[in-house]
Write a structure and sequence with these properties.
Number of helices: 13
Strand order of the largest sheet: 3-2-1-4-5-6
Helix content: 25-40%
CATH superfamily of the largest domain: Dihydrodipicolinate Reductase, domain 2
CATH topology of the largest domain: Dihydrodipicolinate Reductase, domain 2
Order of helices and strands: EHEHHEEHEHHEHEHHEEEEHHEHEEH
Number of domains: 2
CATH class of the largest domain: Alpha Beta
Structural class: alpha/beta
Bound molecules: NADP nicotinamide-adenine-dinucleotide phosphate
Shape: globular
Radius of gyration: 19 Å
Oligomer: single chain
């Protein structure tokens, strides 16, 4: 198969750089267009971008021009790493012009006719694309979104637990990395030797997005899952990787922590079975050590595409509690979006 030609909107930012790193090694896609704000337009990518990923900037993109975020780019699909305010209008313009849009931004996530997708969790929600095209009069174009970076880490393990035991209520506390705030993000003097117990709009997303992700596609809409979530989001001085503690109440009580662990371990990845290059066989890794997962040690598990779960134990208030960790700019952003595109390729929805 010829690689699919892709563009990146917001290519110079934290997530945009991850897209470039991950797509450069991906056999199904070829980067043919880069776009960012007026600040970067007209420069080469190497001139416009302050590269912050430890691997070198791929040679193939260094001399590429940074273009304006407007239809006309030489590509079939675009990955969007735009800030939410810019994303709403720009992504719709691209979809209306016939491009497939795979978005990281929150702008369209909760639109009733836009799939909010984790391919291992709710690939059947891609059926919303037909509804979206009908509603909006789009031909080939579409918008598919991936969830907020903290939502991904929580929802992947909740999926097999919901299927096995019925999740009713969750209390989740996050310890979120600095790269989640983009660059320059939080000033160093605000975060060194400190924890900031507030991330704007984050808790609202963690309440609503899992209910859509774990909801059922019925007729032409998603029936939201009946799960109540109480999040508390904190910014900590880690560079990458969002750590979260979860306390979960189930409708059908598991008999032991071992049964909870077994439900997590036996989770199978549909995109892996379909041969998607970014998918990992073990999407949920369960660790037994009492002090894992740890941000520094476990965030790169499965090339950053796996979620690590540990400390599964009975909860004194709800039923069971655990710790989860996901890489926010890989699994929680660029890697997740690329996997969304791959499952669409594997299903013949992008060609
Ligand atoms: P960022 O580092 O601030 O990068 C923003 C990018 O968008 C830059 O390329 C910037 O270009 C471009 N841009 C800004 N305003 C624009 C405009 N009006 N028109 C066109 N381009 C514009 O942000 P980020 O952390 O990569 O986040 C990008 C998106 O992903 C956001 O919606 C964010 O919420 C979401 N997200 C982030 C994470 C994460 O862990 N960081 C995780 C999940 C989702 P210039 O360089 O030219 O200014």
């Amino acid at each position: 198969m010829n690689p699919i030609r892709v563009g990146i909107l917001g290519a110079t930012g934290a997530v945009g750089q991850r897209f470039i790193e991950l797509l450069s090694g991906n056999p199904w896609f070829e980067i043919t267009a880069l776009a960012a704000s007026e600040r970067s337009e007209g420069k080469t990518y190497a001139e416009a971008c302050e590269w912050r990923i430890s691997a070198d900037m791929p040679a193939a993109v260094r001399a590429m021009p940074v273009l304006s975020c407007a239809p006309g780019l030489d590509c079939q699909i675009v990955f969007s790493a735009l800030p939410p305010a810019a994303a709403r209008e720009v992504e719709e313009q691209f979809a209306a012009a016939g491009y497939g849009v795979l978005s990281n931004a929150s702008a369209h996530r909760m639109d009733p006719d836009v799939p909010l997708l984790i391919p291992e969790v709710n690939a059947d929600h891609l059926a919303l694309i037909d509804v979206q095209r009908r509603n909006r009069g789009w031909g080939r174009g579409f918008i598919v979104t991936d969830p907020n970076c903290s939502t991904v880490g929580m929802t992947l393990p909740l999926k097999p637990l919901h299927d096995a035991f019925g999740v009713r209520r969750v209390i989740v506390t996050t310890m979120q990395a600095l790269s989640g705030a983009g660059y320059p993000g939080v000033p160093s003097l605000d975060i060194l030797d400190n924890v900031v117990p507030f991330i704007r709009n984050e808790e609202d997303k963690m309440i609503s997005e899992p209910r859509k992700l774990l909801g059922r596609f019925v007729d032409d809409h998603i029936a939201m899952a009946d799960i109540r979530i109480s999040p508390a989001c904190n910014r900590v001085a880690a560079r990458d990787g969002h750590l979260e503690t979860l306390a979960i109440e189930f409708a059908h009580k598991p008999s032991s922590a071992a049964e909870v662990q077994e439900a997590l371990r036996s989770f199978r990845s549909a995109p892996y079975a379909l041969g998607c290059p970014s998918a990992v066989e073990q999407t949920i890794i369960v660790r037994e050590e009492p002090d894992r997962p740890q941000t520094l040690k476990d965030r790169d598990a499965g090339h950053g595409m796996a979620v690590t779960v540990g400390r599964v134990r009975p909860c004194e208030v709800f039923d069971y509690k655990m710790v989860v960790l996901a890489h926010n700019t890989i699994r929680g952003a660029a890697g997740g979006s690329i996997l969304n595109a791959e499952i669409m390729v594997a299903r013949g929805m992008i060609a």
